[in-house]
Amino acid sequence: MLLFLARRILSTVPVLVIVALIVFLMLRLAPGDPAAAIVGDSGTSENIARVREQLGLDQSLPVQFFRWSLQLLQGNLGESYFMKKTVVELIGQRIEATVSLAAVTLVVTILVAVPLGVIAAWRHGGWLDRMLMGFSVMGFSIPAFVIGYVLIWIFALHLQWLPVQGYQRLSQGPLLWIKHLILPSITLSVIYVALIARVTRAAVAEAMTEDYIRTARAKGISEKRVLMRHALANAAIPIVTVIGIGIALLIGGVVVTETVFAIPGLGQLTVDAVLSRDFPLIQGITLFFSVIYVLVNLLIDLSYLVFDPRIRY
Amino acid sequence: MLSKRNLMKTILAGAVFAAAAAAATSFAQDAGKVLRLVPQSDLKILDPIWTTAFITRNHGYMVYDTLFGVDEQAKVHPQMVDKYTTSPDGKTWSFTLRKGLAFHDGKPVTSEDVIASLKRWGQRDGLGQKMFTALDKAEPIDANSFRLVFKEPFGMVLEALSKPSSNPPFIMPARVAATPADKQIDDATGSGPYIFKKDEYRPGEKIVYLKNTQYVPRTEAPSGTAGGKNVYVDRMEWIILKDAQTQANALANGEVDMIEWLPPEQYTALKNNPAITVDNPIPKGSFALHLNHVIPPFDNPKIAQAAIMAINQEALMRAQMVHKELYNSCASVYPCGTAFATDKTGYFTGKPQFEKAKALLKEAGYDGKPVVLMYPADFALLNKFPPVMAQLLKQAGFNVDMQSMDWPTLVTRRAKKDPVDKGGWNLFITGWGIADNMNPMFYAPLTGNGEKGWFGWATDDRLEQLKSEFLASAEEPRRKELATSIQQRVYDTGIYAPIGEYKPLTAYRKGVVSGVVRSPVGVFWNLKKN
């Protein structure tokens, strides 16, 4: 087990190096110059050249990469060109909003999708199944921003139950915190509910055809217990895997949702950084997301130990 | 077996819980005197001389004060200065600061602070550089007064010291102004009406200012950047909302009190909302077509003139601004209705002259090579112009290659002087505020100094000569005459051309926000929240 963990953690190093190199090169080769953005509309070519020099952008790519790598090895992700704050500080300022949004979305998704999938499998082929799967197709098909604006129109502008935008920190009160997350997390969860409900339905439906289900029923166990204790437990691994992939996909999903609901999280920070060509910030966030992705995958692998005792690392 | 009844119970319980969580509290209403404003963009750079971004300038007006200000008619008035005198030869200017000026750290504003601030500004700002070139010395007379001694009479001392935009000469403590001009300051201590709350500064989310209770405003009524900078709220929060729809929704829902710069696409919805006032405290701004003069074909003034003749201001502005009441045509390079605006615009009328343009192209020997028009597809404020401009240029006889890109790419590419096949460009369109182009010495593109000048790099010695004469002159009639000649040179050389004027819109909650100051730039004092 420990050996497995050590091997997995070590294997992330080359992944992160490759990600760092690709991001570095893509940024430098893509059009757009942070110096021009900093100088502003009335700046001249001379002003831009001076800022480029100050930022070290006039140096060769290998020199720039070497300097950045040295910083990384010292645990320093650098400083934002524009905001004059360290990348770590900026990520620290934004992480709570994104983690809150992702966590609430995940809870909503699991609480809705898994029961829906189980019910659909239980009533396989019936009207409830068809209705739930129809909803699932809709969830896949409607873009998040459309869902977001419709929810805002109904619950914020029309009913005035919930705020249109923004984020309140948990320290400002749990009720205020959750109120600002209800609409964004519903918006973001729709597609994941659709995905996980479908996978749950398929996995549970397959488990329901197994011999042990027939045996359980023959023993007179209640249908509820058959579903939850025998079918769902045995269908857990594909569901957990998809939930894990869903967490990784959430990283992309938060960008749109944070924009629609003006949530100052890492998604918005990424968009800002890209639009202003803030190289250190983009590189820092990308690396951070890569680490999260790797960690989530590791946790999924470890969770298999819980769901299937036959698995050993 | 799961009964349908139990299932329905569970679903209903979940729904009730969610609704209860939502409705348990009414969401926070504005507490006390906190005014929440959506600024035009995010504030990322705090140093007011480091960028020409309007948002940094607006931040500057919050925390710093200026020696002079301009009213809504662009007339200069003393601001930090109590009185000033000029020597008969016009070379020596003496200034006395008014009493009660103090920085946010409690220390008094001294002439040493003023001189240090002006020197730093003079290293970056175009007009500041010209003033310091003409300056022999800037010296304190005592703690409260100072003098500027020029080698030759400099006609724009007051205009320079009151420059309202890009970049105003803000006064900061000498210890902060000692920061080299090519390094950003990290201390926003000023003597202005608001105090920057550094510990709550979260770019991309919120910028917070507190009322400077020690600030002593002038007694005159506020107008532009001049007059009394009274603050009637305890705290102002700039809430960063980038999406136009979200801005409008937040205002309609009372989550913010004011939108500084309302996107035109939200104009109809908010104008029809009885709880919202749509206003235009900044009278106007303008858009212009800029041409690259260092590469063919616009290195030939006749071909440049032909491109300018293709402009149809009405068609371009209608496409971008949509609503008739939000724009107007104006053929002058200065904002129509301001001091230097003139209808002596030569061949340029703002209306298309395709046949004349075609004849000019033929005469100039245009070889039919495509001209590259840069199209910032992501920039809502500008992205309707290029497709219309491309069509107009085609009708005038040009072969047009309209290249789509995002705005950051455009601002990078426009700095390139290479031929178009090596990443260069021929044309692009951008916007300006009234404070930028109401004076020929303020307007960055109005240069004929070649590669030292603004993007497009036109070379015209006569234009530079006229500008030098303008700088030296202090008489209004002579200045007006020179401004007209400068305008004529712009069109004769085909440097650039205006494509129309727009009304920058501000929206705020009716009956809640009042006291919006009319000004050539966005200022946020005098605002009251009921």
The portion of residues forming beta strands of chain B comes to: 15-25%
What's the total helix number of chain B?
A: 16
Structural class of chain A: mainly alpha
Calculate Rg of chain B over CA atoms.
Answer: 26 Å
In sequence order, what are the helices and strands of chain A, one letter per element? HHHHHHHHHHHHH
Per DSSP E runs of 2 or more residues, the count of β-strands of chain A stands at: 0
Topology (SSEs and partners):
The complex is a heterodimer of chains A (313) and B (530).
Chain A lengths: L1 H28 L4 H6 L5 H11 L5 H13 L13 H36 L4 H15 L2 H15 L15 H34 L3 H8 L4 H12 L1 H25 L5 H10 L3 H29 L6
Helix pairs in contact in A: 1-13, 5-6, 5-8, 5-11, 5-13, 6-8, 7-8, 7-11, 8-10, 8-11, 9-10, 11-12, 11-13, 12-13
Chain B lengths: L3 H20 L10 E5 L15 H10 L1 E2 L1 E3 L5 E3 L2 E6 L5 E6 L13 H12 L3 H9 E8 L2 E6 L6 H5 L8 E2 L2 H4 L16 E3 L9 E6 L23 E5 L4 H9 L5 E2 L7 H5 L4 E4 L5 E7 L9 H9 L3 H9 L5 E2 L25 H11 L6 E6 L8 H11 L4 E6 L1 H7 L13 E7 H4 L23 H12 L3 H18 L2 E7 L3 E4 L3 E2 L13 E2 L1
Parallel strand pairs in B: 1-12, 1-13, 17-18
Antiparallel strand pairs in B: 2-9, 3-4, 5-6, 6-8, 7-8, 10-11, 11-12, 13-21, 14-21, 15-19, 15-20, 16-20, 22-23
Structural descriptors:
A: mainly alpha, 13 helices, 77% helix, globular, B: 530 residues, alpha+beta, seven-stranded mixed beta sheet, 23 strands
Descriptive account of the structure:
The complex is a heterodimer of chains A (313) and B (530). In chain A, helix 5 runs antiparallel to helix 6 (127-141), helix 8 packs antiparallel against helix 11 (236-260) and helix 11 crosses helix 12. In chain A, 41% of the residues are buried. Chain A has 13 helices and no strands. Chain A is 77% helix and 0% strand. The model of chain A has no long low-confidence stretch (mean pLDDT 87). Chain A is globular and about 85 Å long. Chain A is an all-alpha fold and 313 residues long. Chain B is α+β, with helices and mostly antiparallel strands and 530 residues long. Helix content of chain B is 29%, strand content 20%. Chain B is built from 16 helices and 23 strands. In chain B, the strands form seven sheets. Chain B has a seven-stranded mixed sheet. A four-stranded antiparallel sheet of chain B has the order 5-6-8-7. A four-stranded antiparallel sheet of chain B has the order 16-20-15-19. In chain B, strand 7 and strand 8 (145-150) form a beta hairpin. In chain B, helix 9 packs antiparallel against helix 11 and helix 15 (461-472) runs antiparallel to helix 16 (476-493). The longest helix of chain B has 20 residues, at 4-23. Chain B is globular. The termini of chain B are far apart. Mean pLDDT of chain B is 91; it is low at 10-31.
